[in-house]
Prior knowledge:
Layout: H1 2-20, H2 22-44, H3 47-60, H4 69-90, H5 97-112, H6 119-134, H7 145-169, H8 173-197, H9 203-229, H10 239-259, H11 265-274, H12 277-299, H13 310-329, H14 335-362, H15 375-378, H16 390-394, H17 401-422, H18 428-438, H19 443-470, H20 474-491, H21 496-514, H22 518-542, H23 552-576, H24 582-606, H25 616-642, H26 650-671, H27 685-691, H28 708-739
Helix pairs in contact: 2-3, 2-7, 2-20, 3-4, 3-6, 3-7, 4-6, 4-7, 5-6, 5-17, 6-18, 8-9, 8-10, 8-12, 9-10, 9-24, 10-14, 12-13, 12-14, 13-14, 14-28, 17-18, 17-22, 18-22, 19-21, 19-22, 20-21, 21-22, 23-24, 23-25, 23-26, 24-25, 25-28, 26-28
Amino acid sequence: xxxxxxxxxxxxxxxxxxxxxxxxxxxxxxxxxxxxxxxxxxxxxxxxxxxxxxxxxxxxxxxxxxxxxxxxxxxxxxxxxxxxxxxxxxxxxxxxxxxxxxxxxxxxxxxxxxxxxxxxxxxxxxxxxxxxxxxxxxxxxxxxxxxxxxxxxxxxxxxxxxxxxxxxxxxxxxxxxxxxxxxxxxxxxxxxxxxxxxxxxxxxxxxxxxxxxxxxxxxxxxxxxxxxxxxxxxxxxxxxxxxxxxxxxxxxxxxxxxxxxxxxxxxxxxxxxxxxxxxxxxxxxxxxxxxxxxxxxxxxxxxxxxxxxxxxxxxxxxxxxxxxxxxxxxxxxxxxxxxxxxxxxxxxxxxxxxxxxxxxxxxxxxxxxxxxxxxxxxxxxxxxxxxxxxxxxxxxxxxxxxxxxxxxxxxxxxxxxxxxxxxxxxxxxxxxxxxxxxxxxxxxxxxxxxxxxxxxxxxxxxxxxxxxxxxxxxxxxxxxxxxxxxxxxxxxxxxxxxxxxxxxxxxxxxxxxxxxxxxxxxxxxxxxxxxxxxxxxxxxxxxxxxxxxxxxxxxxxxxxxxxxxxxxxxxxxxxxxxxxxxxxxxxxxxxxxxxxxxxxxxxxxxxxxxxxxxxxxxxxxxxxxxxxxxxxxxxxxxxxxxxxxxxxxxxxxxxxxxxxxxxxxxxxxxxxxxxxxxxxxxxxxxxxxxxxxxxxxxxxxxxxxxxxxxxxxxxxxxxxxxxxxxxxxxxxxxxxxxxxxxxx
Length: 744
């Protein structure tokens, strides 16, 4: 009974969060934007005006996505202008079929090619493609083409007005939802890392899960960074924004600390195998922190629900007691194990401090006592989108993924329209609509959307058929269509299969009001979707395919280069001491972003046909090595920022130089695929043994009696030595793997 109650409360909580989400509120806005003009036009007898406003609002809505609101306004405005121009051009496409098809292909390519300017530009492009395709669906009878096009643009402005009004009513909604998701993803990341601490775990599966969560986290961080740092100057620096920015900084640091691993898993496994009591103790701390992050997410702005620090403090006391007991009972041979435990505990303490800072900031503290983030310096973390027209020329090449996608999409649209016209389909534009909605630059995403679209359409068609046989009332159809529309647009980003189901229901219910032969409409809807989905999938296989192995080398190069830059900043900081500079933090951000991008690129490659997964095992090994290298860098970075360190020795500098040389050789091989590939002499362990001393001085006999200052120096020596050995080994392995991969 208790389990059933928990499931009910959990589902109820998910439902309430869904109803409060920005996806749901956006769906409500779209429903209002498309229905109000139609209802008013019916009331006053000018249906075509209402439909034009409705179409303009609907086609402009895709640009309404999470991000800086100023960018969102500009995106919606550009969408409105583009759909107006496309509708104007589409109104004069009254050519013969043999001429119309190439013109349609040319327009499709031109609109799709706008995507070279980034994610928001791709949404504006999608709006233009919607307007182009659906211009075949409705021909105005009472309005001139230019009047119809102007009303389309006015519809886009109408949606922009609603979006601005909603933002003014609830300006914090988007930020709070992103923080809610970031808390939960960070908690999930911590839990996965906690499971990795334990022995006998499926490391490959957990590591893959870490890659996936980290990619999502980086995306959320980028969106939050844009929202919090690019707010309008006229709005000033509100206390709310200042607190959220500080919390955001702590969450970024939590991710770095979570990624950090003070030693390699092999040594940790050996220690925990001999002393299994520490596994549960450390995992309890990690899992409790993850649980508290989830509680913080659910608490939202209600600081009364924020968990207290007492439980975690007790967990730390128990672990410290166990480590002290272990130290007093150990012999000289196990002192390295004691230092490993101390360093791991130190990382968890630092994580706890960040968690306490987040809870303190959420408790409405006096901001006068808080050091605020330098807004001017922080904006350096935002990479502005390049809108230079030269970018179009630079991508006008078969080497460009967007160029190939645009050309592939235009060819597929031409084939789809030709088939729909030749076989005299009832609504050939449905084929085109399916193509532009399903087809994406990557094979994996196109394949999954094809499957989801087909299943959703079949399911929606079956459900709609049942409703049509049972219900004959047009007002009920109108109400059901409205509900289906809201659900469809609120779910299309989270669950495309469910979104496709409700989109089909919406279309059928709308047609049921105006068409008596609704069963025929359903049949054609299903048939057109199957044809469009089939064409999209075949086109991805045969028309200018852009397989993962064609771009993976460039992404590996970017990631290694970013890690090398972060490594150089860490080495410089260790030598110079002081406070971490903005340049240091930017290099860290770039390393995290590029490593995440590499993981995403590999996942896309892994979803492709087996025959196209060239060197998949070696590339996966390289992805893991690169990610592990970043983990070691994060360990090094976290330690030296939070602990006093000694002067950098000449041997330290020499070791840094050798690691950097390995990375330089990796980049050289990646940049010159035609160079002669000789086997790289690896395993130069003699160098590492000679350059770095052992972490424990030989003259120490009684380890339990080591004073605090010397113990800190030993901890530093142990961690720095371990990380440099580990980084040197990883860079050598990366060099060896790259030398064995034949990129094309």
